[in-house]
Amino acid sequence: MLTRFGFIIFKNNKAIFMINQKVLIKRNIFHMTFFIYLSLTLNFLYGQNTTIVDSLLDKLSQQVNIDRVDTLNELAWELRKNDSEHALDYATKAKLLSNSLNYREGYLTSLNRIGTIYIYQKKFEKAEFIYQDILSNESKLNNEYGIGRAYNQLGLIYTQKGALNQALRYTLKAEQKFEKLGKNNIVAITSNNIGDLNRQLGNYEIAMQYFLKSLELKKKQKNKEAIALTLQNIGLFQLEIGNNDKALNYLYQSKLIFEQLNDKYELAKVFKNIGSIYFKNTMLDSAYIFYQKSIALKKELDIGDRDADIYNNLGVIYHKKYLYDDALNSYNEALKIHPTSNIYNNIGHLYYEKEDYLNSIFYYQRALEKANISERKLDQMDALNNLSDANSKLGKFDVAMRYNQHYLKLRDSLELKYKNATNLKINYEEQQKQKALLEKQEAENQSKEILIYSLIAGIVLISLLFFAVLRGNKQKQLAKIAEKNRLIESQRVEELLKNQELKSMNAMMVGQEEERKRIARDLHDRLGSMLAMVKNHFKSVETSIDSIKDANTTLYKKANSLLDEACEEVRKISQDMASGVLTKFGLTAALEDLKVTLEESKRLEVEFIAHGLSERLPLELEITIYRIIQELISNILKHAKSSEISIQLLKSKNGLNIIVEDNGVGFNTDNNNTGMGLKNIQSRVDSLNGELKIDSTFKKGTTVTIDIPLNRKAND
Prior knowledge:
By secondary structure, the protein is mainly α. Among the domains are: 1-47 and 262-338, Tetratricopeptide repeat domain (Serine Threonine Protein Phosphatase 5, Tetratricopeptide repeat), CATH 1.25.40.10; 439-570; 581-709, 2-Layer Sandwich (Heat Shock Protein 90), CATH 3.30.565. It has 26 helices and five strands. The longest helix has 113 residues, at 428-540.
């Protein structure tokens, strides 16, 4: 970055020396020496190494499609500083060819080349448009490197446009991207740029930290160009804080490297900055040499937007040497580039010293107009004071008095506003110091405002985040409550369905038992009586049996025997269907009978234990328990391959405990695919509000425990 000094001279400067013959001789020697030195330097610099460019041009003549795009982009990069027009032409051709080939990477590279060339040409509006387009494209592709590169270039553009805070934001974003990607070579460049931006904003401590970080990284990479850029910025930093000797040392170090690299673009800036240091130290001859070297390089590079400060300071140098024509030409060149109150005042001083007071008043008035537009109070004071003096020289004392009154009023207002500035002087050097102080305070206030706004924004964001978290937690809690209510409702519905199923099963069981009783009565009363009548008829014919032929006697006896067996079977079926033993003698007797039946096979040993069942249970309950145990015994006989079964019934005050054990093969109780037998048992237990537990071990048998409450009714 370039440093602006804005030096002017005053009409009443006592240090101005009178022109004489020695001055003229010195002037001629000075010009001759300068041009010889400048010619030798430029001849050294002009020896550009064209080997790379020639090699690329040879390749280009033999290439097509994607390879041609890449070479065009390389040519644009090599020529971007020294021959920007040809570089722009190559980059534009690469862009068009990439577009026709749908070569996205080549297209974005060519856009980057075009944007960079616009920066070197100081066409910042065009460069900004290009890089905003690049940023949009790279963001869509989620290309972290491309995004970081676009951020960095936009930072450079906003720096050149004077939007320093905006430039700092973009450059910090670029550094974050490149640090994330581990691109230390580029981080070194962005750190240098961040340091320079903080220098310009007056954040000197931060600036130096970034400069040192950049220099350290660049030395590790042995990147000469990058080292030279950082050395140049450190030099400007030292110049800013008044360490002129250190500044000059750093700038000369960067100058040597740029000369080795033949980087004319950066050398033009270094020459200008070295000239400014010499100018500030009133070493005008040295300042003049370096200013002219900077101008020559910029003309060679065809950089259209030249530096107004250089021409203004050259005008001051000529002015102090009484070379009025040269001074006026330099001032006019400065006005063409960027007219300021400072330049108009200097031209006014020149005419004032030549006693051309009308022209001096004209330029002082223009200086006042510019100062009013920029609202620079010190420039306004200077112009008012100069107008007062010039008008008094023409004898216009009333006009001179008005300007003087305005001047005094403005001075008093500034003295009131800045109490510490009690010794405000009229000469420009003292005004410039005051101006620098004011600008520094403005920068500090701006930094404080940014900090305050940042803190406020941070507090607001934290508050919003806090409320968002609270709201999110509340939403989660409401969602959990809603889910819990849904589960409860689902369980309630499931419970209702289960109860309804149990009620239906209970009704079905009761119906089955009633149907069994009815069939038993019908078998006993109707079919049994009919069979008995048949039997009586057979008895009646026994009296005449002797008259029946012997051949039919055997048949008769067989039929009679079968009839007796049928009667007996009907009786047994009737008793079984009516749960004869269970109905007549109760659950204990029925289970004892079941034990005897099981042991008749000689394959099983059955143990039956009953405790506390001296009184009978309700018949429906006894039937359900008996069916449960029957189902358990049936499962054991089908699947368990056991030799021993134990059945235990233990009745307490509040409930009945049933335990059925076997020594069979066991089964996996975690398997959800249970058979209909266990499902029926579970359903029957649920109908009694009981609890079923199954404990089974492989090859060690199974234990089924059932607890049935007796102090409350089962589900209806």
